[in-house]
Design goal:
The complex is a heterodimer of chains A (116) and B (117). Helices cover 0% and strands 48% of the residues of chain A. Chain A has strands at 10-14, 19-24, 32-38, 45-51, 56-58, 62-67, 72-77, 86-93, 105-106, 110-115. In chain B, the strands form 2 sheets. In chain B, strands 2, 4, 5, 6, 9, 10 and 11 form a 7-stranded mixed beta sheet that branches. A 4-stranded antiparallel beta sheet of chain B has the order 1-3-8-7, with no helix packed on it. The radius of gyration of chain B is 13 Å and the shape is globular. The chains are: A mainly beta (116), B mainly beta (117).
Chain lengths: 116, 117
């Protein structure tokens, strides 16, 4: 994903509803994807990851879907709670690019707001 | 487990001074650490990859003489912003990759907010 722009997209959902956050990635060589949650003034917090040999992975209240054909990633959060309010970023990297470890390329981010 | 700390959490300095930021992996060893920068309402941008015992690798557009990185041990990497200017004001975040688990989850520090007056 390309990190540009001064304004983050915002998604507002009612408490208890499910939310879906989408991310488009650009590097077809990327084979490892991660979703992070970032609260104001804090570092990113790992939520869930998925490798390119999978198209779905579930965690506690979260599900990540990967569509490699259209280079799309989504994060589903079930039964949202006030504590889910944060900015969510997708990140991508290539595990097998050779040499040493690679840094992550972050998407633009989505600000999730939970309405009471 | 897998806790990464940063120090200081915030710093205010005058233009022209140098600022050192520390990144420590507290309960694991990390041969590779990464430094990111985040401007307000924007995403994280990778600045450089810090490798223990060798020179850092900088991303395109990042001045290596301005952002000095030292990774002297398996648990500590430092970023020094030399001759800081107001445009360097940003949120600096490091991450660490546990040794032996290459290209798996990176663990992020809490970030350091730098304000240059």
């Amino acid at each position: 994903g390309e990190s540009v722009g001064l304004h983050l997209p915002t998604l507002s959902v009612q408490e208890g509803d499910n939310s879906i956050i989408n991310c488009a990635y650009s590097n077809s060589a990327s084979d490892y994807f991660i979703w992070y949650k970032q609260e104001s003034g804090k570092g990113p917090q790992f939520i869930i990851d998925i490798r390119s040999n999978m198209d779905k992975r579930q965690g506690q209240r979260v599900t990540v879907l990967l569509n490699k054909t259209v280079k799309h990633l989504s994060l589903q959060i079930a039964a949202t709670q006030p504590g889910d309010s944060a900015v969510y970023f997708c990140a991508e990297t290539s595990m097998y690019s050779g040499g040493g470890a690679d840094g992550l390329t972050f998407g633009k981010g989505t600000h999730l707001i939970i309405q009471p | 487990g897998a806790v990464v700390s940063q120090h200081p959490s915030w710093v205010i300095c005058k233009s022209g001074t140098s600022v050192k930021i520390e990144c420590r992996s507290l309960d694991f060893q990390a041969t590779t650490m990464f430094w990111y920068r985040q401007f307000p309402k924007q995403s994280l941008m990778l600045m450089a990859t810090s490798n223990e015992g060798s020179k850092a690798t900088y991303e395109q557009g990042v001045e290596k003489d301005k952002f000095l990185i030292n990774h002297a041990s398996l648990t500590l990497s430092t970023l020094t912003v030399t001759s800081a200017h107001p445009e360097d004001s940003s949120f600096y975040i490091c991450s660490a990759e546990p040794w032996g688990r290459v290209r798996e989850t990176q663990y992020f520090g809490p970030g350091t907010r730098l304000l240059v007056l």
